[in-house]
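Hey, quick one: can you model this chain's 3D structure?
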Amino acid sequence: MSIGRVLSLAQKAHLRSEMEVFLSFLLGCTRLDLIARSEEEVPVEKLAELQKAWIRIQDGVPVAYLTGQKEFYGHSFSVNASVLVPRPETELLVDLVLARAKKGVLELGTGSGVLACSIKKARPELRVVAGDISPEALEIANKNCVQLGAEVELFESDLLEKMPALELDVLVANLPYIGEVRHAELNENVRKHEPHLALFGGEDGLALYGRLFDQIKEQGRQFQFILGEIGFSQGADIQKLCSEKLPDYHFSLFQDLQGLDRHFVLERV
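Sure thing. Here's the predicted structure for all 269 residues.
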């Protein structure tokens, strides 16, 4: 079967983009190369792997789980089903951190480590520490740190529970924010294939942020900035939560490239 025929079939199923990503991985070329090579036959020895992947793509499995890699902030990261697939809108969170950090950054809920590694690669002079409750996720994060040569200190911790007290001026967290009752908007394929531990944040999706803010107060942690990612419908709710639990911080809300509420920044006043 030719490359062009494969892409044509995928396009009819509205899955051309996904197939382009997988096929370029399978053949070791770029997506642009696929167009130039459209008349070429897919090598016979690759057909079985292609067929298996096509079945899974049709089932909604993220292509990143099939290739084992995902681009983020100009770097290629290893991913598997233990971690969320990095989203492009989260790159804006890296920018927000880099514009504010002076001494060091603590990231909670690091998952595959894309935030921590991207920050460290962009600003090598910063001390970057990251934690996650999942040992499987930390294995992937450590793999990415090694592959990218990013000196990030990793800890297994439920939020701040086992995190050592460090003098870092920025805390960033992309915690699970999908609600089980309210703010429950979620693509069915994501619900089906990506880890629920990294998706769901209680009834309204903000339970983990509430716990984190409580821990900050209880432990007397001092951060100049606290940043996080939320769902597009949670802006008002996260602002209310922040004002109730961290009244000494000024709240700002930032939108993603689609103009949707996506990130919040708290600055100590």
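One thing worth noting: The longest helix spans residues 44-58.
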